[in-house]
From TrEMBL:
Gene3D superfamilies for this protein: Divalent-metal-dependent TIM barrel enzymes
UniProt GO MF annotations: ferrous iron binding; manganese ion binding; mannonate dehydratase activity
Broad EC category: lyase
Taxonomy, superkingdom: Bacteria
Listed InterPro entries: Man_deHydtase, Xyl_isomerase-like_sf
E.C. number(s) listed in UniProt: 4.2.1.8
Cofactor section: Fe(2+); Mn(2+)
One of the protein's GO biological processes: D-glucuronate catabolic process
Function noted in UniProt: Catalyzes the dehydration of D-mannonate.
Identification of the protein by name: Mannonate dehydratase
Reactions catalysed, as given in the entry: D-mannonate = 2-dehydro-3-deoxy-D-gluconate + H2O
UniProt keyword Lipoprotein, yes or no: no
Entry-linked Pfam families: UxuA
Length: 366
């Protein structure tokens, strides 16, 4: 398991590369060109700038999150081919710098959704919170306004104002799009881009829906094990993979995370590991990574990765906001650094256990 840390770039993140390099075990940053509008080609020059920035601190840039998919592709509009060609060109340009994994999502309109970006917890820390009752009382426009006004003046990927300036038009376009239509449009996209990704040695890894159920009537197609199986079956390519995100899939208590992980481990090049705490009404809050603080089997997930000799990339996902840190919602330094250490501690425990077993066998055989 190769530990990484998400970084939003110079001038766009409260956390510097100098700080990230001090987290034990973190070998690389997960990055993107957040200033490039969705659908435009990422230039070799701009990619090289970020790669070289990270290299100065001994950090790799093997994983990109995300090269976003233009809405016209998701909608299956006639203009999608132009954006697909731009996507292929971006993959080609990324390959020049040895990029191994590109995480992307296929969520309509909103990439993710929370009702509270800084919900106070019992210990005084704050965290991302999804209030199931509140979300049903809000309009899409109110949700967008809430996100803009409570983001601590940081950009929020998936909530770009220029992309969401005409919400009503977007929602009208999706009125006739069913989950079956959306899967067809994803399949078309993958059939086009996977050969390019294969040619350049890049694995595409789709991110689950966050949360993994319909919001405002929009279709969702990466919600559970059956959905994932359908996507992986749709295009038979080693470049058609999954980003295993425990927090997204785990927001639905009915999803068996260990079973999903075991079922698709050979198609998972990248894992997001975070914990969430469920409430009876369907709400959830993002807790610390520690098993006892949430509802998900975090050490069980790490154990399963270890058992299957996972050599892919992982990162501590969203963390709480602690010790008065001013940061992008969900992406502070301190709690994610604690998360990275917790995950690596669970991995090291497996290493020690295996070593101990081998030592016992050796002693018994002498």
């Amino acid at each position: 398991m190769q530990m990484t840390f998400r970084w939003y770039g110079e001038g766009n993140d409260s956390i510097t590369l100098a700080k990230i390099r001090q987290i034990p075990g973190v070998k690389g940053v997960v990055w993107a060109l957040h200033d490039v509008p969705v659908g435009e080609v990422w230039s070799v020059q701009r990619i090289g700038e970020v790669v070289n920035q990270a290299k100065k601190y001994g950090l790799n840039t093997d994983v990109v999150e995300s090269v976003n998919v233009h809405e016209d592709i998701k909608l299956g509009l006639s203009s999608r081919d132009r954006y697909i060609e731009a996507y292929k060109e971006t993959l080609k340009n990324l390959s020049e710098f040895g990029i191994k994994v590109v995480c992307y999502n296929f969520m309509p309109v909103f990439d993710w959704l929370r009702t509270d970006l800084f919900k106070e917890m019992e210990d005084g820390s704050t965290a991302l919170f999804f209030d199931a009752e509140k979300v049903h009382a809000l309009t899409p426009e109110q949700v967008v306004k809430n996100m803009e006004e409570n983001s601590n003046n940081f950009t929020l990927p998936g909530w770009e104002p220029e992309r969401l300036k005409d919400l009503q038009t977007l929602f009208n376009q999706y009125k006739s799009i069913t989950e079956a239509h959306l899967l067809d449009n994803l399949t078309y996209f993958l059939e086009e881009v996977c050969p390019t990704a294969e040619r350049y040695g890049i694995q595409l890894a789709i991110h689950p829906d966050d949360p993994p159920f319909s919001i405002f009537g929009l279709p969702r197609i990466v919600k559970n094990k059956n959905d994932i199986q359908a996507i992986l079956n749709a295009v038979n390519s080693p470049s058609n993979g999954l980003t295993f995100c425990s927090g997204s899939l785990g927001a639905n208590p009915n999803n068996d995370l260990i079973d999903i992980l075991k079922s698709f481990i050979s198609r998972i090049p990248f894992a997001h590991i975070r914990n969430v705490k469920h409430f009876e009404d369907g709400s959830f809050i993002e807790s610390s990574h520690r098993n006892e603080d949430g509802s998900l089997p975090i050490t069980g997930i790490v154990n399963t990765l270890f058992e299957h000799d996972f050599k892919g990339y992982a990162r501590p996902d969203h963390g709480r906001h602690i010790w008065d840190e001013v940061c992008r919602p969900g992406y502070g330094l301190y709690d994610r650094a604690l998360g990275a250490m917790y995950l690596q501690g669970a991995w090291d425990a497996n290493v020690s256990l295996r070593k101990g077993i081998f030592e016992n066998i050796s002693v018994q055989n002498t």
